[in-house]
Amino acid sequence: MPQSAHHIRFPLLAYNVKVFPVLAEFGIKSITSVVEDDYENFDRITIDYKGKPYTFLQFPIAYEHENKAKILLMDYNFYVYDTSNHIDPEISKEEMVKLYMDEAERAFKDRRPFFISHHFSNWNNSAYWDAMKEVIIEVKKKYKTEFFTVSQLYDLLNRERQK
Questions:
Q1: Going by DSSP bridges, is the β-strand pair 30-33/52-60 parallel, antiparallel, or unpaired?
Q2: Which carries the bigger pLDDT value, residue 124 or residue 40?
Q3: Residue 135: left if φ>0, alpha if ψ -120 to 50, beta else—which one?
């Protein structure tokens, strides 16, 4: 029996508060977003839905600054930046591995989740796909690691919060 999705990332990460009642109606529990630096508590958005409070969690996507550009640590953002700047796929892969490993180090130091946000596409001669696989293997070797789906993380955070 298929399960319903309870977590969402909007195209272009674009949304506004008018969508919250619709998300509540469909039982959405979290939104992947670009909320900055709220890794400890995440950003909890509570609305009044049919006379009762309804809360969403926002899971942030990390980002880096490259020149004057803010690049989300997501394969598509690298693809757009790298292709528009004519960067060789091998250099793109190496840069993504470095940025992801730097973010992993910050995440584990701060005792917070490390998110990998990918489209599972083979853009730029699979540079980002290969980088993601390499990072997962390296993170697993370097840190005591557990891998969670967004649904599992949401449930874990809510259990911890209720304690």
A1: parallel
A2: 124
A3: alpha
- 115 CB-near residues (< 8 Å, 6+ apart): 32, 59, 60, 61, 62, 73
Number of Cβ within a 10 Å radius of residue 61: 18
Q: How far apart are CA 106 and CA 91, in angstroms?
A: 23
Distance between CA atoms of 158 and 116, rounded to whole angstroms?
21
Q: Where are the alpha helices (DSSP H) in 54-115?
A: 75-84, 89-109
State residue 41's pLDDT score: 58
Is pLDDT above 70 for 62? yes
Split at pLDDT 50, 70, 90, the class of 72 is confident
CB 57 within 8 A of CB 160: no
Compute the C-alpha angle 24/25/29, nearest 5°.
Answer: 35
- As a whole number of angstroms, the distance between CA 124 and CA 82 comes to 9
Name the phi and psi angles at 140, rounded to 5. -65, -40
In DSSP terms, which residues pair with 8 in a beta bridge? 31
Identify which has the larger pLDDT, 144 or 137: 137
Domain ranges across the chain = 7-60, 63-142
Residues 6+ apart with CB under 8 A from 66: 81
